[in-house]
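Dear colleague,

Following up on yesterday's call, I've attached the two folding results inline so they're easy to grep. Please treat them as preliminary; we haven't cross-checked anything against experimental data yet. The first protein's sequence and structure tokens come first.
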Amino acid sequence: MNSETFDWPTFLGRWQEEWVPREDEDEEDEDEDGQTLVSQGRPGAGEAAIAAAEERLGRRLPPSYREFLAVSDGWHVDQVAGVYQLGGVADIDWFRDPFGMTPMYEESLGVNPREEEVLLAGMWRRALRLETDSDMSYALLDPGDSDQDGEWALYLYKGWGGEYPARYPSFRAYMEAMYRSFHSDRVERPDFVNATTRTQDAHVEEARLLALRGRHEEALPLLEEAFSFGRPRSAVLFHQLHQLLAPRASKDYGYLVADPLYMAEILPVQAMEPARGEWRLGGDDHWLGMMAARGVPRENAEAVLGAMRDGTHQYAPPGPWGRAVAEAREPARWGATDAAWRVLREALPLWEAPGPSLIAPIGLLADPVLGPLITPERGREILATPRAGEKGPAPEPVPDLDPPGLAWLTESISNRRPFDRYRCVWVEGLDPAGLPGLIGEEGSALSAPVDQHWARWRRASEDGARDHTEPWEDRATVAVGRTSDGWAFAFDRDPQYLNDRLVSPAPAASSSGRAVVVWHDASRSYPGGSPATFHLSVAEQGEELYAFTVRGTEIQRSGAIPEALDPARLFLPEATGPDNELRALEALHTELGLSLPHFALTQGRLRTFTTRSWTRAPREGENFAYATFVRHRS
């Protein structure tokens, strides 16, 4: 920061001219024209007075503070619950840590503290105290925390808050922030209108139009500045842009959530966090109470929260955009997320805003089927697409996310190891909704869309509650979908260990067409563990055509296995387990056209159901054991 370029007289003069009390404050004395008579500053201190203060303190003051004092020897900041008055050259003095903060901060430094933590711990004894009137708050300039221009960082510490001090890189940065805070504190006053408020409101409208034209990167800084001044609509517009750039983040849309124009779009988005179980401020009752305080009828909030939680909520906007959303939902609910996104992408220009406070279809994020499709990259593409009747260049399309085939099962995913065990049933030409009737347990039906990260925990809770199963049974909670080549699939991402009592569901699944079962288990293939196991079975019209199971170098086979799927060619003794698995998966894709949707199975939501057991009962003479763990509260 080059403080020489900053016009302190103009800045402070504008602040003085705009000064009015807050809406909740008593009016000060007024002149004959009804103007309030509050002098925020004082005449500037002369160079001799500033030099005398520096001699008394033993340090030259930082540039921006020195220049401020030459224009105004102190200032009426009037911060809500903070600093009210900054003193002049005769008032400032060293803080000297009267409350013993240094030992407490030094004790919390740890073994490898960051530089900013070390600076903060030492600040309390070095700092220069500026305020003369405050609400247990302190404005502290730290000579030990300086930049290349000689500016000292200013720390604002609110002693009643129990929080770390807020840091500003210079006195000028602090004063500019306090000026913005002055505006934010008075934004509710209907008579608080001046050149600054008019400029910022014009910036909000300009940013709104830029955002609708796909120029969100130009809109963001305008909204960020207007937001810092507390201008109406700036926060909700700013949050919409940021929410689409980080779709899983939580944003607060204030009273917009109760506006009839926007409730259908905004309320489900506000319910995303409590529906995920991430609401930490008192649970559902607190959230429902907060919505009620903003004017949302409790029955509306309860209904939306329930639908979000059980996966039945559907984003259903009106018009051509709404028809595209409904069209995209069909492929998305069966895992064809790239195809669904292409439908949405093509229709984005048709989106219409229900009112001037909405600039993007953020309600899409709350849809349990379509919301997971919106990655940060796709959110950026939404924002870069002109919409609501505005014109502009279309953005470069984001590449598809689903690679063809099955090879991705062997690759690391989002900083996780590859799937070390999985099993899947494919049925050719079948509507996925028919899978529970072929291989599901009695009475099973498709669930609402389920987050795949939680599918295994759902299965565990169901297994614990199910009292009609035998200990030897291995029922799977499978995610259901359809591949791009028309195969219905049922995928289990975390099966039990593959054993010799496998009963392939392929024959039962093949009553209406060809069915394929793959079960891979490398979870115990470590030194001293069991060898990796790979099973394939193919059936048609209720009869198994061929099958093989590979355990290490041992191969069991039956039926007429096609040459391209011959396990002796695919599983080479000299190759590593992952190489053999990859070779087998690539052959299945080439020979049978099998694939699985990477994105839907790792980040999306799919419907699930519970299968019949994949294992048979132990025969006479076969060993079988199981263990049950029960945790008791102490």
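Below is the second protein, in the same order (sequence, then structure):
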Amino acid sequence: MADLKVTTSLRRNDDVSKSRFKPYRAPRQHGESLIEPSLANAESMLRDNQQALGSLPSSLQQLRRPAREALLRDSLKYTRAYRDVDTTDLSSDSIVMAGHQPTLFHPGVWFKNFALDRVAKLSAATAVNLVVDSDVAHSSAIRVPQLNRSTGQVQSTSVAFDQHSGGVPYEQSLIEHRELFDSFDARVRDSVQSIVADPLVDQLWHHAREAIRRCGFAGCALAQARHALEHDLGLSTLEVPQSVVCRTESFANFAMQVLCDLPRFHACYNDSADLYRQIHGIRSNAHPVPNLARDGDWFEAPFWLYGNRSAKRQAVWVRYCDGGSAIEIGDRQNRTRKIANANSESAYEALHALQSPEFKLRSRALVTTMYARLVLSDLFLHGIGGGKYDQLGDLISQRYWDCPTPQMMVLSATVMLPGHESFAPQLIQQRQIEVDRQLRDLDFHGESFRDQADSPEPELEQWITRKRQLLDDIPPHGQRLQWHREITAINRQLGESLHELRQQLTQERSRLSRREKDAALFCSREHSFCFYPLPYLQATYEGMLR
């Protein structure tokens, strides 16, 4: 058991600058991708990581082989429940991983799954996608865009696959309205038909209806349906839920290493988060993650706890008792357990034995990827959000485990709906700038529009001539009051003579504002992948992967 007197001088000993953190940004244009480093470097990165992982502490070194064998075994068992698996060349010797919540995410996220398959094939590795089902499920509906072809205006409507709106982890989110779920594809197809005639939701939901009959949970059904569709497309990845991984003895071993040394982990975690906020100028203590709390002799741990009867996630707390030889672990409400001889080599077996339908111990995000990158895999593929936050995870890992962290890849993509070229947001914004400049010129340079003026020409020429005289003879500073009043009066007269042109430009500015909103909605990169045409997505992905 670690000494509870923990120093917090880690920050002073670190030479960390903002340049160390990469500012990953989502690609903005259709067909653009972020792949950093490039796919061509994937195999060399994986081999470099395998070599670097040889410097891990012995406690993690000894854990890697049994944990990876369990991962492969569990992934095969889980994936075979709903699709065929070709086990040729599958091995735990080289593993590349990615992960995401089981949602109807946007095409930029789905691109990562295609890249995972490609990286595994390039590097002769086994690909495993981790379904992060301990995250809280949000809305059970998606926004579907619709185009009024007569007016060109775009709006969106909400299409739900269940009647509730989440609030509990995905692994606990049961589908309550089966008829709503079963009809989801038809309602999405009807809603998006003005833009896409053949949305892939038809193929996807064929698998989703089969999956929901097997498991009944939204996250499980959505993930299995997507993965089954990927199999139809020739992707050779395995999948496993985080909840399955967290139930293994290997994970209990890893978790126990943290729990038995929690005060020091606390210091490493909180100091790293404070440093990250300081370097990035973040004022909120909630970002990128809140610090782990302490309440007397209770330490907050980087895990969640929940059960079937009370499915809302609760923070895990730990305190040391019996002179430091035992720990109490739980949510300090209804779920608190005691582990005796916590500093023995077999203590993890006691933690593993605690797992039950009412005591579900799950890792939080940074610890999830820490375990995946240090123990389960040789290369991990992140999205942009995960890539940013896991740079904080690297700080924590380096401090706590006292070793370098393996390299990761960060990927994302932007795929817009078919027909996005008709909106061209950049052209709309450019025309808005031109119209705004013209409206401003009406106020200050009305003479530039003399051919479009409403006033009689002699009167107009008189104003313009007088303005030129004033501009040719500008008085010194301090003597310009009368000069300024006369210039202002002439500009006002010129502007008033351009009433019809001003009205036309004002109307165009309003039209462009509406068009800008339409373009922003139509060309959003955040639309769900499920209402895109499948061949369109495949071709776009293939182009980016090349």
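For the second protein, one point worth flagging: The two ends are 51 Å apart (CA to CA).

Best wishes,
A.L.
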